[in-house]
Amino acid sequence: MGDAQLSAFVFTSTAKAYTRANLNPNLAWLNEAIPVVVNEASTCNAYSTGDDIHFYKATQPSTTGQPVRQCQNTARLSDVVYHEFGHSLHANSIIDGVGAFDGALSEGMSDMFSAFITDDHGMGRGFFMSDAPLRDIGPSTPLRWPDDLTGEVHDDGEIVGGAMWTLKKAFVAQYGAEVGNAKARKVFYGALQRSVDIPTTFAEVLVADDDDGNISNGTPNMCLINNAFGTHGLADPQVTLGLTPPARDNFTISMTINPPAGSEACANAATVQTAEVEWKKRDGQTTKIVLDGAGTSYTGVIPTQPAGTIVEYKVSVKLSDGSAISYPHNEADEFYQFYVGDVEKLWCADFENGADDWTHGALPANRDEWEVGRPMGLAGDPKSAHGGQNVFGVDLTLDGMYRRNAQLWAESPEIDLQGKTNVRLQYYRWLGVEDGFFDNARVMANGAKVWSNYASPTETMNGKDHADKEWRFHDIDLAAQAASGKVRLRFELDSDPGLNLGGWTLDDVCIVAAAPAPTCGNGNLDEGEACDDGNIDDGDACAATCDLPGTGGDDTGCCSVGATPGGAAFLSLFTLGALLRRRKRNN
Ligand SMILES: [Ca+2]
Ligand SMILES: [Ca+2]
Ligand SMILES: [Ca+2]
Ligand SMILES: [Ca+2]
Ligand SMILES: [Zn+2]
């Protein structure tokens, strides 16, 4: 047995024994032989396939006289072997349908796995034949998410590795080495099993720390965990402040904070620093509105827009701990949208009684996983329908994910549009698909592509996956397709060999026609108008929305509060002669 063979065998056995004793004694994978390949014909690296682990030779002395970077045989470095073992441990520890393998996450967690064994935050000392580490998860200036992201998986992994190392130190400071390390290992392994990427590690650490299955009432070490992850920008405001997606009532956007019980008492508890809405008309310029905070509620009003406008908006919150979040929480599609004004529904599918008039299929045919039913929240799928009980989607019930190397499609019946103008597709979507450079989701109408998911221009390790985390209203103009007098919709998804997400989930798919043009500005006082001076200009006696100046839009006291008025309230406001703003239902 050569040196490298012997050292790799010893280090791998150590990693196995450590895992069995400290992380997961019941992991069946530990009982299998793990292939370890040494002295591969390259230098300065090592890799894991997710099961077996491989190591490269040492650099040979230069024969050309030119200096070359000298690297050690990587099988002789204990922490490099632990790191590669850590990748395989990660791949074999993920709970199906809960966690997922993410490259940067795996790098950072593998560095931390090694650091647990060596108790050294420096990773790969000796790699370049010196004591300087190749990577460091305990540098004097902590790395922060997202400021220190570079797009390179080892660099980005150092941020979560750093958070885990900071957390381990905090546990040891509070409980002493033995108990503190045990607590740190417990939450580390929980996060390894259940996280889908670096940002989700925070909530999974809290889940692993919790003692009653409910993190909204706090967890035993919540303050310590908030602090450690907050240092690295990874204390997710959805947890620390209990933030949920903003609500919208007509043009009023609001959000509520609901921190876990007891968290306000933590030293350095995070608070909202700024909350704002950025809004625009589709394809227009964005405008920012600061949300007014009162108690636990933050509210702002987008100026009233005329019927037929598609308004798009996002809500961004910055916290005192430097963390931030935007809603919609989907980097591949950053703006909510809503349609102003009434529409006539020409055809809808709610999937409550199946999708018998749709067809679906796949290439290869056995990868067709379209089904109607109740969504189960698998692989990022919704946990409930948008409307009623049932939805139409790709794999609702097995593992949630579409399959690799597949071309999937679902096609609507042909919808008659004779005599209809201003036709639009308006539907609710919950889509999970890898960056479009790799996996492509498309909406087709009469064979023409009318939407596809964001695609990075070049191959990247740091793509923007499209991951809806709530039901998203989606409006698509079908005027060009509708000119033929009929339309057929088709939802498609093509996948590559790697990374599969939840795929399409659809509900309340409607073909609509925009209502007739608004009557504001025609000089007649039509129903619902407070005034009409024959134009739709602001700044004169009658505002652009046929409100009296100072009563409509963003400064009204009477009409922007509460739900859309029901018949009685609507009538009483009208008969009392109160200033009535034109209100239409928005999707
Ligand atoms: Ca709890
Ligand atoms: Ca439904
Ligand atoms: Ca893929
Ligand atoms: Ca699915
Ligand atoms: Zn690695």
Describe the structure.
With 587 residues, the protein is an alpha+beta fold. The chain folds into four domains: 3-235, Neutral Protease, domain 2, CATH 1.10.390; 240-339, Immunoglobulin-like (Sandwich); 343-514, Jelly Rolls; 523-587, no CATH class. The protein contains ten helices and 29 strands. The chain has helices at 3-22, 78-93, 103-118, 153-175, 177-194, 201-209, 222-231, 237-240, 479-482, 567-575, and strands at 36-43, 46-48, 53-57, 122-123, 135-136, 247-249, 252-256, 272-281, 287-290, 292-294, 297-301, 310-319, 324-327, 336-339, 343-349, 359-363, 370-373, 391-394, 407-411, 415-416, 423-429, 432-433, 440-445, 448-452, 466-467, 472-477, 486-487, 489-494, 505-514. Strands 15, 17, 18, 21, 26 and 29 form a six-stranded antiparallel β-sheet that branches. Strands 8, 9, 12, 13 and 14 form a five-stranded antiparallel β-sheet that branches. Helix 2 (78-93) packs across helix 3 and helix 6 (201-209) packs antiparallel against helix 7. The longest helix has 23 residues, at 153-175. Residues 552-587 have low confidence and may be disordered. One calcium ion binds at residues 210, 212, 214-215, 217-219.
**How many helical stretches?**
10
- Tell me the helix content: 10-25%
Structural class: alpha+beta
Number of domains: 4
Look at the structure and give the CATH class of the largest domain. Mainly Alpha
CATH topology call of the largest domain = Neutral Protease, domain 2
* Ligand identities: calcium ion, zinc ion
Rounded mean pLDDT score: 89
Query: Any guess at the CATH architecture of the largest domain?
Result: Orthogonal Bundle
- Outline the biggest β-sheet: 6 strands, antiparallel
Portion in strands = 15-25%
Q: How many strand elements?
A: 29
